[in-house]
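Q&A log
Question type: sequence-to-structure
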Amino acid sequence: RACADRLGALTCPALILHGDGDAVSDAARSAALAGPGVEVVRVEGARHDLLHETDAAATLDALRDWIVARL
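Response status: OK
Response body:
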């Protein structure tokens, strides 16, 4: 919760990645963090540990696309 309270103080864009198969974190809570400068992206087929539990390619693709869109 402390992190969510501080998102509004960021002075740079933020990305929150959420696996659509995540059984640990609630997708609705992640979605609620979206706002000015904060984008939430659901990664299809990913679980909680986006880079280790599933194919990391979808996670890395989402991250790359988000970065490239801001260059």
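Response note: The chain has three helices and two strands.
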